[in-house]
């Protein structure tokens, strides 16, 4: 197992290097001049030339890329062109904001998705099965940015139940320890803060969870059905164990494997999908931040942030693979 | 970005045995027509096509030229069934013309993913060795990217337009096709009929195009159908972010993004284009699902 | 199985349709008897909000001491000398003071850190007497050496954008030297007389920072700002909020609230909702559509920022083709119905006829606007040899600007109108940075753009935007590439003239020539609205785009 993990980690290096090369070349292919975006209407020729020199934009690409890698090796993510602040500063609260939203959405998707899938499989063809499967079909087809807007219209504009934007109400203080507000509020036993954070998470969380929830429900149902039709489950059934025990001990464990893969893949999807969700719910995370940085050609921010996202994504995949092995030792990891 | 990739990757679409084509597709068609859900999907798709073709006949107004600022933000009424937008244009007419754009997105974006993905996957799977390694590592790198960011970056490079958004969505879809085709090709290339073709001296390229790829078609077509829905969603998302269709184009994502400012005062402006996207995507998903079930021999029992 | 699924599907779709019918029905009815039901809608909203309020703010009661200000983007840096964006300036204005500052309701200059100043006869030496007993937030006291330190710091790098921009360079700029004569006297020596100098010193970028803090924090100073202003910096959560607290040692009127929070809510509509639900107290950047609801809503009040801007459509006079012909440009001015166009500003703006706002001295009100006359436009076009119509491009940007709340729609409306005069417009939309770049490069035929004044001097509009000095391809402020020597001479001589009335005459003359040559279609001067809760007192928005918020109290 340890060997396997080490081997996988080593294999990540070329992939991440590839990601960094791809990001670097793509962002430099974007037409336009970062110096000009920084100076805006106040640009004049002299200022532009000087600024380009200062930002190192006149260096050959290889030198620029080398510098980026070199800094990275020393743990330096670079400095934003636009704000002149270190990228790590910019990410300090934004990254946890996005991850918190993503985990929250993942939790909703898993709990609801797996539950709905299991019940649907056990009670196949029941009204619940039909309802949840129809819901799932609707779920994978809905544009989440539209769903988000409609939710805001209903729950914020019309009913006034939930806040339309942000992570926290003004005036609510949460001591930022990890920048995961839900966690921070628990750590500081700040229950009113916890409630406020939760309320803010609810709509963007549900919007973001919609598609993975639907997919997990569909997957869970179909793999449960497949497993339940296999001989050993029938045998267990025949032995007279209580039905729920059969279901949960045998079937669920086996059915969980494909579901796990989906969850791993969907985590990456969520990180990406956060761009739209964050835009709609004014969520101060990295999604919107990267989007704006790409458009402003803020090279250091884009390069480092995308790499950070890719690192998270590949590690989540690695973890799911390891879990895979843990749940079912018969699976060969090669 | 793609919701669907997992749907079919994990389920029943796996390597297919070469079959007699006619009976496979014939069976499939009759099975699709029997399934109500995929029938609905098919109907939605047909409706979309009819609306797109007959747009000038069906639309009560011109989607761009008709309307004046004075009539802006009119709620649904007898003259404007779905209301008017910020420039007083008829929303129904714009949605009807938008159907054309949606079809274009579906065809072009999925076409790109289909062609490029199939070729890459086919070559990787068939030739194997280092070629396989190189191609699949590139695919890995692409998949380590959150795909929407990849698409955004691509649009930023190519310039903001609907066409470029379609290209970006297409390229983002390449890895899924490549992976499916590769695994299918891997299982087919050792089969007898391929071996015999090779033994009789047929060139590799010809074997790939004439014998191997045609036999991978079933899973690819299912993937393509499901991808249309995703592509429409993604392109609408890009347009919503201001990266896709521009200006007065009656594209549904643009309509949503334009109407967002009036969410409080005129909610109908965003309600209907969103509903249109939802319906069309649902149509392709239902049909694709049905197609997959119909083509999957294991469900025959 | 499929049958069941089908039935459920049908039922669900039916539900959706019903729900939609219900909601569209509701909106129809709410629109018919225009005002009354709108009103009731609002009441619905606000009563909901009041419920929310009583829950959330019960503990605070009337002793509310935190003012939450909502805006569309985060600050870049809290060092005003290095930024050009309004979002940074808005916050730094609370933390820093300048030597002089603008009156609360005009761009006249009044004492701030300097209590008095005089100019030498030749206009090149300015001597300032400083206020005594002022302390920076870090406890160090403010003296003449600190002023020298700040001004010297700004000459050291190109990072101090506004310094270079306003004073024409860093080491070789307008300011020759700055000396501390004694503890509380500071002397500026200029290269040449410069009339707008004192106006410029009042600009937010020239806020005086604590030298101790700059030395102490080094590269991190931008997020640890220390000034002498009415509020002290507390914390900054990127992309989300900046928190300030009252400076109890402030030299002037102490702030009326204890805490001041700036929150980022990018979407205008969402921000307005937050205001309605009571989680913010004051906001800028209102969607035009929301203005009416805001004005009618109980518990809200609308503030107007006096206009110091202009939104315009520049016509590229430099490009070969129809627009090089003055008649065509005049025809375009005639073919646009500004009265209709200004409706898109939904009451946020007044239509413009000159390139500078009426709030500035030197504004020429005698100019007779072109008016709307399609027939005359067609005649002019025919005279110019374009009777068959022309095809031209109109470049625009996607995002709202203070001087143009809906650029996209404005472009489309202009397109609709020009069609009447047989002018076919193709709209080219680029993101903001690209838009600036391509228009500065002169790729456009016509382009939408605008300008917000820096220091309240006409020079800052006319010279920057329409002088031939600024019509350089690649870095043009003058994107009409309008080059008129007569205008150039007028503007240049106005720069070194120290007497305001004489300057005003020159600017008025220049506006006449510009009007005739029609390099622009001047569109509007906006008075950007700010919306606040009605318990806010003492708030006066300033024409320059930012103001100190210490005068605000809660009722």
UniProtKB/TrEMBL annotation, chain A:
The entry's cellular-component GO terms read: plasma membrane
Q: Where is the ABC transmembrane type-1 domain?
A: 95-324
- A GO biological process this protein is involved in? transmembrane transport
SUPFAM superfamilies cross-referenced by the UniProt entry? MetI-like
* InterPro entries from the UniProt entry: BPD_transp_1_N, MetI-like, MetI-like_sf
Please state what the protein is called: Peptide ABC transporter permease
Pfam families recorded = BPD_transp_1 (PF00528), BPD_transp_1_N (PF19300)
Family to which this protein belongs: Belongs to the binding-protein-dependent transport system permease family.
Question: Per the record's keyword annotation, is Cell membrane included, yes or no?
Answer: yes
The reply to whether Transmembrane helix figures as a keyword in the UniProt entry is: yes
Recorded source organism is Pontibacillus marinus BH030004 = DSM 16465
Q: Where are the transmembrane segments?
A: 9-30, 101-122, 134-155, 201-220, 255-281, 301-324
Q: How does it sit in the membrane?
A: Multi-pass membrane protein
- Where in the cell? Cell membrane
Which superkingdom does the taxonomy of this entry point to?
Bacteria
Alphabetic keyword roster: Cell membrane, Membrane, Transmembrane, Transmembrane helix, Transport
Q: Which CDD domains match?
A: TM_PBP2
UniProtKB/TrEMBL annotation, chain B:
Superkingdom of this protein's organism: Bacteria
Membrane topology, from the record: Multi-pass membrane protein
Q: Which Pfam families match?
A: BPD_transp_1 (PF00528), OppC_N (PF12911)
Query: Which InterPro entries does the record match to this protein?
Result: ABC_transport_permease, BP-dependent_transpt_permease, MetI-like, MetI-like_sf, OppC_N
Q: Which GO terms describe its cellular component?
A: plasma membrane
Domain named ABC transmembrane type-1: residues: 99-288
Q: Which Gene3D superfamilies does the record cross-reference, listed alphabetically?
A: MetI-like
Q: Where found?
A: Cell membrane
Q: Which UniProt keywords apply?
A: Cell membrane, Membrane, Transmembrane, Transmembrane helix, Transport
Membrane-crossing residue ranges in chain numbering: 39-59, 101-126, 138-159, 216-245, 265-288
Give GO BP annotations, semicolon-separated.
transmembrane transport
Give the family, as the similarity comment puts it. Belongs to the binding-protein-dependent transport system permease family. OppBC subfamily.
What protein am I looking at? Diguanylate cyclase
- In which organism is this protein found? Pontibacillus marinus BH030004 = DSM 16465
UniProtKB/TrEMBL annotation, chain C:
Q: Does the keyword Glycoprotein apply?
A: no
User: Where is region (Disordered) located?
Assistant: 25-82
What CDD domains does the record tag this protein with? PBP2_DppA_like (cd08493)
Q: What PROSITE patterns does its record include?
A: PROKAR_LIPOPROTEIN, SBP_BACTERIAL_5
Which Gene Ontology CC terms are recorded?
ATP-binding cassette (ABC) transporter complex; periplasmic space
Solute-binding protein family domain sequence ranges: 108-471
State the protein's name. Peptide ABC transporter substrate-binding protein
User: Known InterPro entries for this protein?
Assistant: Peptide/Ni-bd, SBP_5, SBP_5_CS, SBP_5_dom
Enumerate composition-biased segments (Basic and acidic residues). 73-82
Q: Which GO terms describe its biological process?
A: peptide transport
Give its localization: Cell membrane
Q: Which family does it belong to?
A: Belongs to the bacterial solute-binding protein 5 family.
Q: Which PANTHER family match?
A: OLIGOPEPTIDE-BINDING PROTEIN APPA, PERIPLASMIC BINDING COMPONENT OF ABC TRANSPORTER
Q: Name one Pfam family in it.
A: SBP_bac_5
Question: Signal sequence: where?
Answer: 1-21
Q: How does it sit in the membrane?
A: Lipid-anchor
Compositionally biased intervals (Acidic residues): 32-45
| The keyword Magnesium is annotated on this UniProt entry | no
């Amino acid at each position: 197992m340890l060997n396997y993990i080490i081997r996988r980690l080593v294999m990540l290096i070329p992939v991440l290097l590839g990601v960094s090369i791809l990001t670097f070349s793509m962002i430099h292919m974007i037409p336009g001049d970062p110096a000009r975006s920084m100076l805006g209407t106040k640009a004049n020729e002299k200022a532009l030339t000087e600024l380009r020199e200062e930002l190192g934009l006149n260096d050959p690409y290889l030198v620029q890329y080398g510098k980026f890698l070199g800094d990275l090796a020393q743990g330096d993510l670079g400095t934003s062109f636009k704000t002149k602040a270190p990228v790590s500063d910019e990410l300090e609260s934004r990254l946890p904001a996005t991850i918190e939203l993503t985990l929250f959405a993942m939790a909703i998707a898993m709990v609801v998705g797996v539950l709905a899938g299991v019940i649907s499989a056990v009670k196949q063809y029941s009204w619940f099965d039909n309802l949840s499967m129809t819901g799932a079909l609707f779920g994978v087809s809905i544009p989440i940015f539209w769903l988000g807007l409609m939710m805001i219209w209903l729950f914020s504009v019309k009913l006034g139940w939930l806040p339309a934007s942000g992570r926290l109400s003004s005036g609510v203080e949460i001591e930022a320890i990890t920048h995961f507000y839900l966690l921070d509020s628990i750590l500081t036993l700040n229950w009113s803060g916890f409630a406020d954070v939760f309320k803010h998470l609810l709509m963007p969380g549900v919007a973001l969870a919609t598609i993975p929830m639907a997919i997990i429900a569909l997957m869970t149902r179909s793999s449960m059905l497949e497993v339940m039709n296999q001989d050993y489950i029938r045998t267990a059934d025949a032995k007279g164990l209580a039905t729920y025990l059969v279901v949960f001990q045998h079937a669920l464990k086996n059915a969980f494997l494909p579901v796990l893969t989906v969850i791993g893949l969907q985590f990456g999807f969520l990180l990406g999908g956060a761009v739209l969700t964050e835009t709609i719910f004014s969520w101060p995370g990295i999604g919107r931040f990267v989007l704006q940085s790409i458009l402003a050609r803020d090279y250091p921010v884009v390069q480092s942030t995308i790499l950070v996202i890719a690192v998270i994504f590949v590690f989540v995949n690695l973890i799911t693979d390891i879990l895979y092995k843990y749940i079912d030792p018969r699976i060969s990891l090669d | 970005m793609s919701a669907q990739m997992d749907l079919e990757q994990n389920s029943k679409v796996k390597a297919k045995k070469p079959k007699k084509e006619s009976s496979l597709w014939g069976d499939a068609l009759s099975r699709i027509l029997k399934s109500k859900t995929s029938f609905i999907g098919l109907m939605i798709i047909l409706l979309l096509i009819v609306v797109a073709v007959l747009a000038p006949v069906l639309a009560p107004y011109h989607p761009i030229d008709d309307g004046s600022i004075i009539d802006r933000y009119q709620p649904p009424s007898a003259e404007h069934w779905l209301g008017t937008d910020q420039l007083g244009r008829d929303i129904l007419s714009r949605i009807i013309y938008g159907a054309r754009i949606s079809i274009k997105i579906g065809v072009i974006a999925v076409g790109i993913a289909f062609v490029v993905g199939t070729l890459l996957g086919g070559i990787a799977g068939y030739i194997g060795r280092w070629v396989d390694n190189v191609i699949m590592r590139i695919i890995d790198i692409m998949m380590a990217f959150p795909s929407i960011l990849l698409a955004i970056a691509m649009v930023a490079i190519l310039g903001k337009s609907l066409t470029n958004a379609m290209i970006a969505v297409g390229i983002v879809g390449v890895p899924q096709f490549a992976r499916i085709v590769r695994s299918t090709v891997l299982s087919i290339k050792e089969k007898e009929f391929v071996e015999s073709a090779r033994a009789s001296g047929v060139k590799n390229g010809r074997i790939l195009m004439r014998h191997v790829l045609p036999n991978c078609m079933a899973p690819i077509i299912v993937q393509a159908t499901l991808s249309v829905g995703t592509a429409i969603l993604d392109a609408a998302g890009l347009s919503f972010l201001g990266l896709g269709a521009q200006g007065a184009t009656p594209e549904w994502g643009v309509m949503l993004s334009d109407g967002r400012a009036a969410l409080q005062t005129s909610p109908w402006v965003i309600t209907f284009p969103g509903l249109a996207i939802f319906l069309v995507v649902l149509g392709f998903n239902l049909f694709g699902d049905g197609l997959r079930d119909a083509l999957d021999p294991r469900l025959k029992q | 199985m499929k049958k069941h699924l089908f039935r459920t599907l049908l039922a669900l779709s039916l539900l959706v349709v019903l729900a939609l019918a219900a909601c569209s029905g509701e909106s129809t009815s709410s629109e018919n008897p225009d005002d009354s039901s709108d009103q009731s809608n609002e009441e619905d909203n606000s009563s909901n909000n009041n419920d929310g309020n009583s829950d959330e703010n019960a503990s605070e009661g009337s002793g509310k001491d935190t003012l939450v200000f909502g805006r569309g983007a985060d600050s870049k840096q809290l060092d005003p000398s290095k930024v050009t964006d309004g979002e940074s300036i808005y916050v730094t204005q609370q933390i820093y003071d300048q030597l002089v500052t603008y009156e609360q309701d005009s761009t006249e200059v009044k004492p701030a850190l300097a209590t008095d100043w005089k100019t030498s006869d030749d206009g090149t030496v300015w001597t300032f007497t400083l206020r005594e007993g002022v302390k920076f937030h870090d406890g160090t006291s403010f003296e003449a050496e600190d002023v020298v330190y700040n001004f010297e710091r700004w000459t050291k790098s190109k990072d101090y954008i506004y310094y270079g921009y306003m004073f024409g360079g860093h080491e070789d700029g307008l300011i020759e030297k700055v000396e501390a004569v004694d503890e509380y006297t500071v002397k500026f020596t200029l290269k040449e007389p410069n009339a707008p100098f004192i106006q410029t010193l009042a600009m937010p970028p020239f806020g005086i920072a604590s030298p101790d803090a700059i030395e102490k924090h080094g590269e991190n100073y931008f997020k640890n700002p220390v000034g002498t202003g009415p509020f002290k910096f507390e914390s900054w959560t990127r992309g989300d909020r900046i928190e300030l607290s009252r400076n109890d040692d402030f030299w002037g009127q102490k702030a009326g609230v204890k805490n001041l929070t700036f929150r980022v809510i990018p979407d205008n509509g969402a921000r307005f909702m937050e205001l309605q639900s009571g989680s913010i107290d004051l906001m800028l950047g209102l969607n035009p559509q929301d203005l009416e609801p805001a004005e009618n809503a109980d518990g809200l009040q609308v503030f107007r920022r006096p206009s110091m801007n202009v939104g315009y459509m520049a016509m590229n006079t430099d490009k070969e083709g129809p627009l090089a012909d003055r008649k065509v440009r005049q025809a375009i001015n005639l073919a646009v119905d500004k009265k209709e166009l200004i409706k898109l500003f939904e009451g946020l703006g007044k239509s413009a006829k000159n390139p500078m706002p009426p709030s500035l001295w030197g504004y020429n009100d005698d100019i007779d606007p072109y008016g709307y006359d399609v027939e005359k436009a067609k005649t002019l076009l025919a005279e110019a040899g374009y009777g068959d119509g022309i095809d031209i491009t109109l470049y625009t940007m996607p995002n709202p600007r203070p001087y143009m709340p809906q650029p996209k729609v404005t472009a489309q409306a202009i397109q609709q109108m020009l069609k009447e005069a047989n002018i076919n417009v193709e709209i080219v939309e680029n993101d903001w940075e690209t838009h600036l770049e391509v228009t500065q490069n002169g790729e456009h035929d016509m382009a939408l753009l605008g300008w917000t004044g820096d220091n309240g001097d006409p020079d800052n509009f006319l010279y920057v935007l329409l002088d031939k000095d600024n019509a350089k391809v690649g870095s043009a402020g003058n994107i009409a590439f309008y080059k008129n020597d007569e205008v150039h001479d007028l503007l240049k001589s106005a720069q070194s003239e120290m007497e305001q009335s004489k300057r005003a005459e020159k600017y008025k003359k220049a506006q006449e020539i510009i009007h005739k040559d029609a390099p622009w279609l001047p569109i509007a001067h906006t008075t950007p609205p700010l919306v606040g809760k009605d318990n806010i007192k003492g708030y006066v928005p300033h024409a320059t785009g930012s103001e100190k918020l210490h005068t605000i109290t809660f009722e």
